[in-house]
Amino acid sequence: MKLHEYQSKQLFAQEGIPIPRGRVAMTAAEARSIAEELGGRAVIKSQVLVGGRGKAGGIRLVDSAEAAEDAATQVLGIQIKGLPVRKLLVDEAVGIQAEIYLGITNDRQARSPVVIASAEGGVEIEEVARREPGKIVRIPIDPLLGLRDYQARYLAAAIELPREHWRDFIRIASGLYRIFHRVDATLAEINPLVITKDQRLLALDGKMVIDDNALFRHPDIADMRDLDEEAPAEREARKYGLSYVRLDGTIGCMVNGAGLAMATMDVIEFCGGRPANFLDVGGGAGAEKVAAALQLILAEPAVRAVLLNIFGGITRCDEVARGVLAAMDEVRPRVPFVARLVGTNEEEGRRLLAEADLITASSLMDAARKAVAAARGPALPGGRRDDASEGSRGPGPAEGTAPTELPRTARDDLEGSAPA
Ligand code: GDP
Ligand code: MN
After folding, report:
1. How far apart are CA 10 and CA 27, in angstroms?
2. Which ligand is nearest to the CA of 204?
3. Whole-number percent of the chain with pLDDT over 90
4. In 3D, which of 306, 419, 320 has the Cα closest to residue 364?
5. Residue 347 and residue 38: Cα distance in Å, rounded?
6. For a surface tag, which of 171, 319, 372, 382 has the fewest beta carbons within 10 Å of its beta carbon?
7. Average pLDDT, stretch 345-366?
């Protein structure tokens, strides 16, 4: 989860990192009165969860309250990389002498946090890394010891920071590490950390990314989530505890278990199709969760067929089937469904689905083949295809792909042959 600049700066301030005076405004009138409080000279900064706001016209320097109101009116109307600007941070404007980069993230190779600093602040660190990799200094931090003063001093020396700022720099770097550690961040970044014309160090911009898997132990941070900034599908998925990632194919996947979901996507690709999403409904998913998952999948216009692949261990196949039927009642799918249910209560599950005329499959390969074929064919009302009925031969696998076995029908699945 990403935090806004103003939220990151609040955390910075809690650890004693100096930040400019300022407040958040939702309207131009508020921006005006905040600028007035600050004495007129101010920076109007759009609060959107993407970088490069400056280049996109999302950051404006003004020198009066009136100008602040005008700039705020303009900035509140724009979109930055597709995100509408709804909030502004109005900060006091400061004279800048130098811009430094200071960030902490995890280094997977070193298996530890790493502090990164550069005298080339104010631009994206990736850009510095490309242009002048020598201008970036990195040191690993032992998580049991934290950032030691001598390490921060080493950084200060390496970026050739003037001596008189070392003491403050060390305080800021240790404060930043404490925040990073305390809130389970995967990134804590000050860019730029500036030397002001009046010789102070100040965190002018802040960016924090928090590990979603740790949010359960930081309810105060979790509350900072800005729902406006999320895609609606992601919000729904989180509400129901589903892992959902949108992809660009045409076959919607609903699977229980991340590993099985990956395998399902692989087999779809093997059969010549493209998955429209990754979706793990998790173990023990009940009917309600399954219904929510299906609605998510079907809300995606590119989806031409849905493949359900459920391995019932803790999850009960009949529960899943009931969820599917409930969802189909509600959303009236316009695409065919292929279901492979194996495991606990599979007979009951398959009976329910066959009654609803879904295409059923006995193995993952079989299911993927049918889904790929179904996604190529025309959509039928009610999410059913006539090739699901007995005797008719469904469309074969893609030209040039290996599988040649005849598609099995719903009846085949019910009669005799045990699933894989
Ligand atoms: P970003 O472009 O989204 O990373 O936004 P930043 O907050 O980093 O601001 C971009 C640039 O705007 C900074 O690197 C500064 O050069 C400039 N800037 C931001 N705040 C001030 C300020 O108070 N005074 C001056 N003079 N420049 C500022
Ligand atoms: Mn910045």
Report:
1. 21
2. 1
3. 62
4. 419
5. 70
6. 382
7. 88
